[in-house]
Design goal:
Order of helices and strands: HHHHHHHHHH
Number of domains: 1
Strand content: under 5%
Largest sheet: none
Distance between the termini: 14 Å
Radius of gyration: 18 Å
Amino acid sequence: MEWFIEQHPVMQAFLATLFTWGVTALGAAVVFFFKEINKNVLTGMLGFAAGVMIAASFWSLLAPAIEMTELTNTPAWFPAVVGFLFGGLFLLITDKVLPHVHPGTEVSEGIKTDWQRSVLLVLAITLHNIPEGLAVGVAFGAAAAGYPTATVTSAIALAIGIGLQNFPEGAAVSVPLRKNGMSRLKAFSYGQASGLVEPIAGVIGAALVLMMQPLLPYALSFAAGAMIYVVVEELIPEAKVERWNDIGTIGAMLGFAVMMFLDVSLG
């Protein structure tokens, strides 16, 4: 831990997002053992991912952004609201432009293309992972900025939480591809590839924050808005496909509790 804390914030963000990518790869690796996942298990995992992201958006991103702004002459709510809405708008525009298809559906979204369904499926999960990597990177950049509300341990807690919820996302790519006839190795390769964007987004987030510290509350809130967009647009609907199934709800509650525990205990 001490060695990690001594690293440059950009390197910390890179290493932390390598971990989150690694958990995505671990989730994708279930394809070597199962050709399909029980629907209830997948529903619970997606609900868990939603709970983690909701808790992380507040405890690790929005709350610090508000507390930082209270130390300035800017109204405390302003950066949080503006950044949050722009984060959601960014994902909305990206969702409309980037060709992709979500697990469990056949209808593609974004610009029309003749790309294979496997590529579109990877792009859908990649879209999820951009704000997650960005959030981790911004958190480490915030810790380096010296704000009392942002620490390296809280950034580590965020990375752990994001990593935990990446497991079902990796499986959500690789298992359907295997079920559709793709080889195990190729399905795994596609699944882990969906998480490769996280180290890139993490490094960019940390570097931008270090270069433009006054924008830090906006950056934290931007990442929170992008994550909440993913939760509301994708994870919750996918976890509640069967209307009367409570497993997704229970998973979300557990995910929120785990992320809250990590952030409060480590932060």
